[in-house]
Amino acid sequence: MAEGEFLFSKELDVAVRVVHLACALCQRVQNSLLSTNASQVNSKDDDSLVTVADYSVQAVVSQILSESFGSQNLSIVAEEDAQTLSKSDLLQAVVNTVNESFSEAPRFGLKVSNIPLSPNQVLEAIGRCNSSGGPKGRHWVLDPVDGTLGFVRGNQYAVALALIEEGRVILGVLGCPNYPVKKGLVNHHHQLASEMSSASPDMWEKGCVMKKPLRVYSMVKYAAIARGDAEIYMRFATAGYKEKIWDHAAGVLIVQEAGGVVTDAGGRPLDFSRGVYLEGLDRGIIACSGAVLHEKIIGAVDTSWECSLL
Ligand SMILES: Nc1ncnc2c1ncn2[C@@H]1O[C@H](COP(=O)(O)OS(=O)(=O)O)[C@@H](OP(=O)(O)O)[C@H]1O
Ligand SMILES: [Mg+2]
Ligand SMILES: [Mg+2]
Ligand SMILES: [Mg+2]
């Protein structure tokens, strides 16, 4: 999905294809993770999880973007770090997974030369994504696996790729391999609503049933709003945690293009122009399916915030 589709049609085409390829890779790794005891998961310094899929997707996307747009002026901001992988027991599995993925790239309309990549070349591809973004020029933003915890548990996760130009997100692709195609099935909570819609208007125009909260890992939360499976996503991180741009760029654009509104709790747009972090965020993030609802939620958050500080 892109604003100015004509200007960025090549970028959009490559982004969609590479996210498809990455999703196929993730599905294979998730299946093998759930069916074998082989260790494919590590903990990082911050105690969060990282898997063969996180590293492999970052290498694949980096390599394909380099081949498509040249590595010279390519800037990629992404989550994973090559140095950590170089010291990990996951390296060989990552190299195998990356090369396996490249061998099926033509099926996704993508070309990769000089394969298979050696371990050093894989590390180089991952390490190339060490840009810190900023207000000038073009930056690709990648979260290779968002919601790694959900991924490891066989649950929801997303591959998120966005393009920022002059500080604005202009393109976002969100691959959600476990998201049900059939509307509503993401948490089965729509069953009641669909039963109600076949009843007479008298039955359903009055009163309301408060829906159960939708509990999903990762940026799939933004996808659920864009798809009409949820209306509100509020995210207030624990004190001291700074939100990173790759956790939001693609999802925010997709919600906006579906007619939703995403701001911080002060009603200001998220600022993707200040490096790796969403600097200046007022309290937290509020994503809504529409403008009227958004305005009411901002008001309600303000009111309850003031009360809670009394
Ligand atoms: N303390 C804290 N507070 C808020 N957010 C944090 C925190 N720590 C990590 N992260 C980032 O959140 C990403 C996953 O978000 P979710 O809310 O979907 O969490 S989870 O998937 O249920 O674990 C997760 O993204 P991935 O690492 O890509 O899974 C993290 O970047
Ligand atoms: Mg992570
Ligand atoms: Mg993430
Ligand atoms: Mg991630």
Automatic annotation (TrEMBL):
<protein>
    <recommendedName>
        <fullName>3'(2'),5'-bisphosphate nucleotidase</fullName>
    </recommendedName>
</protein>
<dbReference type="GO" id="GO:0046872">
    <property type="term" value="F:metal ion binding"/>
</dbReference>
<dbReference type="Pfam" id="PF00459">
    <property type="entry name" value="Inositol_P"/>
</dbReference>
<feature type="binding site">
    <location>
        <position position="79"/>
    </location>
    <ligand>
        <name>Mg(2+)</name>
    </ligand>
</feature>
<dbReference type="InterPro" id="IPR020550">
    <property type="entry name" value="Inositol_monophosphatase_CS"/>
</dbReference>
<keyword id="KW-0460">Magnesium</keyword>
<feature type="binding site">
    <location>
        <position position="247"/>
    </location>
    <ligand>
        <name>Mg(2+)</name>
    </ligand>
</feature>
<comment type="similarity">
    <text>Belongs to the inositol monophosphatase superfamily.</text>
</comment>
<dbReference type="GO" id="GO:0008441">
    <property type="term" value="F:3'(2'),5'-bisphosphate nucleotidase activity"/>
</dbReference>
<dbReference type="InterPro" id="IPR000760">
    <property type="entry name" value="Inositol_monophosphatase-like"/>
</dbReference>
<feature type="binding site">
    <location>
        <position position="146"/>
    </location>
    <ligand>
        <name>Mg(2+)</name>
    </ligand>
</feature>
<dbReference type="GO" id="GO:0000103">
    <property type="term" value="P:sulfate assimilation"/>
</dbReference>
<dbReference type="InterPro" id="IPR020583">
    <property type="entry name" value="Inositol_monoP_metal-BS"/>
</dbReference>
<dbReference type="InterPro" id="IPR051090">
    <property type="entry name" value="Inositol_monoP_superfamily"/>
</dbReference>
<feature type="binding site">
    <location>
        <position position="143"/>
    </location>
    <ligand>
        <name>Mg(2+)</name>
    </ligand>
</feature>
<dbReference type="GO" id="GO:0046854">
    <property type="term" value="P:phosphatidylinositol phosphate biosynthetic process"/>
</dbReference>
<keyword id="KW-0378">Hydrolase</keyword>
<keyword id="KW-0479">Metal-binding</keyword>
